[in-house]
Amino acid sequence: MRPPETLLAAATLLAVVLLPSGAIAAPPIIGNSHIVRSNNIILMEGDIVGPAKSYHQYVIGPESQDTLRDISIEFARNGQIEAAGQSYGPNPVWESRLMPDDIGWISRSVVAVQTGHEQDVSQLISAYKTDERGRIVKVTEVEAGDNTIGITNQYYFYTPDDQVRFYVAVGRNPGFGMYLYRPDGRLEKVVKNDNDTLSTFTDNGKDLSSITKTPHVTYITECQKWDNSGNCILSEKQEIISFDYQGELKSITSRFMLQQDILYYPPHRAAHP
């Protein structure tokens, strides 16, 4: 297990990297809906239709006894994500918390992987910096693991109408990402150097399915039920792990149901259709 001093060093290093001399003003209240949606896409890689107040996703059914896939999000009245948390388990165990900060937002994630009698713990601290208009323009990630500390900076670029279009990452984990949209502005595809996500929609614009492919795991989510706003409130998820075993490609598939509870700001009606 990595010593706690490395985690402390990571937090100290992040403070040194991010805090120039002088006070930093809090990010402005954002009135541009494109900026709000772009920030939410960067923070959580997704968006919700309607004036959502809170979102909670969790596993239901028999698999809920030993499978943890929780996501909780709190929204401001303008639709901007205020705070969020994610929990994943049982192995690896992943806990992540996102909170507002003077520069924009900051998230802290801890991952514990159990291999036999050994447990490896790593931490990732991400700081989301906004510009004077409230757009996220830079994310600084400080990762501590295996007695090492690494820094990655991601720089975000926007279209003239304030839709986030792509980012470039430099540092410990160099790479790129591109965001592609439907004509109605909904996020349709995310392409990155090491993975990609494709979302599909019904004819009337409701979320239908998404598939994310990484080098070793494929995630497939299919919506089963929607509320009146078109947001998915019940979905089936598959996680397919691919690996090489004695020269032969093998895979393990797990399936479970996810429920999404969404509360809205009044006046709004989003009962189940």
Helix content: under 10%
Using only C-alpha atoms, the radius of gyration works out to 19 Å
Q: Report the top-level CATH class.
A: Mainly Beta
Total number of distinct structural domains: 1
Strand order of the largest sheet: 1-2-3-4-5-6-7-8-9-10-11-12-13-14-15-16
Runs in which pLDDT lies below 50 for 5 or more consecutive residues are 1-28
Which sheet architecture does the biggest sheet show? 16 strands, antiparallel, barrel
CATH architecture: Beta Barrel
Share in β-strands: over 45%
CA distance, first residue to last residue: 50 Å
Count every beta strand, where a strand is a DSSP E run of 2 or more residues.
Answer: 16
Q: Look up the CATH topology.
A: Porin
User: What is the overall shape?
Assistant: globular
- Succession of helices and strands: HHEEEEEEEEEEEEEEEE
Describe, in short, the structure shown.
This protein has 273 residues and is mostly beta strands.
Descriptive keywords:
16-stranded antiparallel β-barrel, Porin, disordered N terminus, mainly beta, 273 residues, 10% helix, 2 helices, signal, single chain, Lipoprotein
Describe the structure.
The protein is mainly β and 273 residues long. It has a single domain (4-20, 28-264), classed as Porin, CATH 2.40.160. The protein is built from 2 helices and 16 strands. The protein has helices at residues 4-18, 33-44, and strands spanning 52-60, 68-75, 81-89, 93-101, 104-115, 118-130, 136-145, 148-158, 164-171, 175-181, 187-192, 196-201, 207-213, 217-226, 232-245, 248-264. It has a 16-stranded antiparallel β-barrel with strand order 1-2-3-4-5-6-7-8-9-10-11-12-13-14-15-16.
